[in-house]
Amino acid sequence: MYQQIVVVGNLGRDPEMRYTASGTPVTSMNVATNRKYTGSDGQVVKETTWFRVSVFGKQAEACAQYLKKGSSVLVEGRLNPDPNTGGPKVFTRQDGTVSASFEIAANTVRFLSSRETSGGTGPIGGSTTEEVPVSGDEIPF
């Protein structure tokens, strides 16, 4: 059996790194995905889904160092269901509305923001969407 989820979105706040009892680095991030569509009544509907992402090892250190609130990322991993319900964790917000939290254990995190946007000096453990201009003389084939 195999399960994989791919999410592309933006960080809702700065990542938080901590260490397990055995000394393994773990970074937690909140990633928001956005969707916009026109409803049956003709109104534009904006929908945001939040994912709680956990990253382990060297990749966790790189995420904590180079990512910040607003950074764009692509996360590949597995969905962790709530052991009590088998689905997302459901909770009630302070305003009384019901919401759900989807949790992902990341296998790979790719940095999609440019270095200037993410505030780091380079893409460790990820890639950027920056394009480097190449002249015809520099193409290696």
Give a verbal description of the structure.
- The protein is mostly beta strands and 141 residues long.
- The chain has a single domain (5-37, 45-130), classed as Nucleic acid-binding proteins (OB fold (Dihydrolipoamide Acetyltransferase, E2P), Beta Barrel), CATH 2.40.50.
- Helices cover 9% and strands 46% of the residues.
- It has helices at residues 58-66, 115-118; strands at 5-11, 16-19, 25-38, 44-56, 72-80, 89-92, 98-111.
- A five-stranded mixed beta barrel has the order 1-3-4-7-5.
- A hairpin with a 5-residue loop joins strand 6 (89-92) and strand 7.
Please name the CATH topology: OB fold (Dihydrolipoamide Acetyltransferase, E2P)
The first-level CATH class name: Mainly Beta
In helices, the fraction of residues equals under 10%
Point out poorly predicted stretches.
Answer: 118-141
SSE ordering? EEEEHEEEH
The whole-angstrom Rg is: 18 Å
General shape = globular
Write the layout of secondary structure elements.
Elements: E1 5-11, E2 16-19, E3 25-38, E4 44-56, H1 58-66, E5 72-80, E6 89-92, E7 98-111, H2 115-118
Parallel strand pairs: 4-7
Antiparallel strand pairs: 1-3, 1-5, 2-3, 3-4, 5-7, 6-7
